[in-house]
Amino acid sequence: SQQGEEDPQALSIQEGENATMNCSYKTSINNLQWYRQNSGRGLVHLILIRSNEREKHSGRLRVTLDTSKKSSSLLITASRAADTASYFCATWDTGRRALTFGSGTRLQVQP
Amino acid sequence: DGGITQSPKYLFRKEGQNVTLSCEQNLNHDAMYWYRQDPGQGLRLIYYSQIVNDFQKGDIAEGYSVSREKKESFPLTVTSAQKNPTAFYLCASSIDGNYNEQFFGPGTRLTVL
Question: Is there a contact between A41 and B107 if contact means CB atoms under 8 Å apart?
Answer without folding.
Answer: yes
